[in-house]
């Protein structure tokens, strides 16, 4: 595919070739399209988008004749906007095929395609293009397992963490409590600073997925007790609520999402359960639906899902509606 180079690209080629889209007249915002796209989003969301756009850049760099357009993710995205509609769709379809060949999970493929579509929509808003990207998602099965380790499994994991009375045991107990008791995501847990916890009111200020402002979440008594026990060891110095621990139990910097994943996996393995942080959230949401007799509206406030249809999937899986229908029509 022969493509133009945009203004400011190091190759210095002309983009006014009549076979292609005209050169883009980029003002300051348009020259930094991805910066404009990332603006106003949470740090976690920006990191995820950057990874997705960087993956697209590496794909472009591997294509014949396109390496000059992929020195940065910004250049790769601007190149996508500079070509004709059909060429852009062909490139996106090629990218989708490449991701499938790499055996990426359907959810990952679809998220990265959505990251491209979102930038193209911004380009459309800014008048850079008059079209949108049409490459479709790949088929996927969403939330096949929404039960997680279950409440008994979580209790066993908490008990496992409590067997250690040192700083790590107290820290890990508080983390598991937050992941399950208030259904926090691991990114939400690791983004917490000490100032976000109000012991007197019993709340934490959570920066939810895709949000730019924190919201107050009330904590059950057992969760507050676990947090207070951890903070008594952690100390009252400002900074990350949860940090890495050295051999002496001293903090060495903010705990990462990957570290939380390892904590949960190891605690689960210790009680014979294969799980992950999001599994604890699954268990909490399923338990909330059970306890509320399927009150999806109330559980939506608890889980902070934006789309109520996601909770419908949880509820259908919880009730095993497909199994109930099969039982109704099965012959004796």
Descriptive overview:
By secondary structure, the protein is mostly helical. The protein folds into two domains: 28-125, no CATH class; 150-324, hpI Integrase, Chain A (Orthogonal Bundle), CATH 1.10.443.10. 55% of the residues lie in helices and 5% in strands. It is built from 15 helices and five strands. It has helices at residues 28-31, 33-38, 43-61, 73-82, 85-101, 106-125, 150-162, 167-181, 186-190, 221-234, 257-270, 277-291, 296-303, 308-319, 321-329; strands at 197-198, 203-206, 215-218, 243-245, 251-254. The strands form two sheets. The chain has a three-stranded antiparallel beta sheet, with no helix packed on it. A two-stranded antiparallel sheet has the order 4-5. A hairpin with a 4-residue loop joins strand 1 (197-198) and strand 2. Helix 12 (277-291) crosses helix 14 (308-319). The longest helix has 20 residues, at 106-125. The radius of gyration is 24 Å and the shape is globular.
The spatial strand order of the largest sheet comes to 1-2-3
Helical percent range? Answer: 40-55%
How are helices and strands ordered from N to C? Answer: HHHHHHHHHEEEHEEHHHHH
Name of the CATH class of the largest domain:
Mainly Alpha
Q: How many helix segments?
A: 15
In this structure, how is the largest beta sheet organized? 3 strands, antiparallel
Q: Which class do the helix and strand fractions yield?
A: mainly alpha
Number of strands: 5
Mean pLDDT, to the nearest integer, reads 85
CATH topology term of the largest domain: hpI Integrase, Chain A
C-alpha Rg (nearest Å): 24 Å
Strand content: 5-15%
Identify low-pLDDT runs: 1-26
Number of domains: 2
How far apart the termini lie comes to: 62 Å
CATH architecture tag of the largest domain: Orthogonal Bundle
């Amino acid at each position: 595919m022969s493509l133009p180079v945009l203004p400011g690209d190091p190759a210095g080629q002309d983009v006014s070739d009549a076979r292609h889209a005209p050169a883009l007249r980029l003002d300051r915002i348009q020259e930094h399209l991805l910066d404009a796209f990332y603006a106003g989003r949470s740090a976690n969301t920006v990191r995820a988008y950057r990874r997705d756009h960087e993956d697209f850049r590496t794909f472009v760099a591997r294509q014949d004749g396109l390496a000059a357009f992929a020195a940065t993710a910004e250049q790769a995205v601007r190149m996508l906007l500079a070509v004709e509609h059909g060429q852009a769709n062909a490139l996106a379809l090629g990218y989708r095929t490449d991701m499938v060949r790499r055996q990426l999970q359907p959810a990952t493929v679809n998220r990265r395609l959505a990251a491209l579509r979102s930038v193209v929509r911004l380009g459309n808003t800014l008048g850079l293009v008059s079209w949108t990207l049409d490459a479709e998602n790949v088929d996927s099965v969403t939330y096949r397992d929404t039960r997680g380790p279950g409440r008994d499994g979580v209790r066993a994991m908490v008990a496992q963490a409590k067997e250690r009375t040192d700083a790590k045991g107290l820290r890990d107990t508080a983390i598991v409590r937050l992941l399950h008791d208030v259904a926090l995501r691991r990114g939400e847990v690791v983004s917490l600073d000490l100032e976000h916890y109000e012991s007197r009111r019993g709340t934490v200020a959570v920066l939810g997925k895709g949000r730019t402002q924190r919201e107050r979440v009330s904590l059950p008594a057992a969760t507050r007790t676990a947090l207070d026990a951890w903070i008594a060891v952690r100390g009252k110095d400002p900074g990350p609520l949860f940090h890495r621990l050295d051999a002496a139990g001293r903090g060495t910097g903010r705990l990462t999402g990957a570290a939380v994943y390892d904590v949960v996996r190891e605690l689960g393995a210790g009680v014979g359960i294969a799980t992950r942080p999001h599994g604890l959230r699954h268990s909490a949401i399923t338990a909330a639906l059970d306890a509320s007799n399927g009150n999806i509206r109330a559980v939506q406030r608890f889980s902070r899902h934006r789309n109520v249809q996601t909770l419908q999937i949880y509820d259908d899986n919880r009730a095993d509606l497909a199994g109930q229908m099969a039982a109704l029509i099965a012959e004796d």
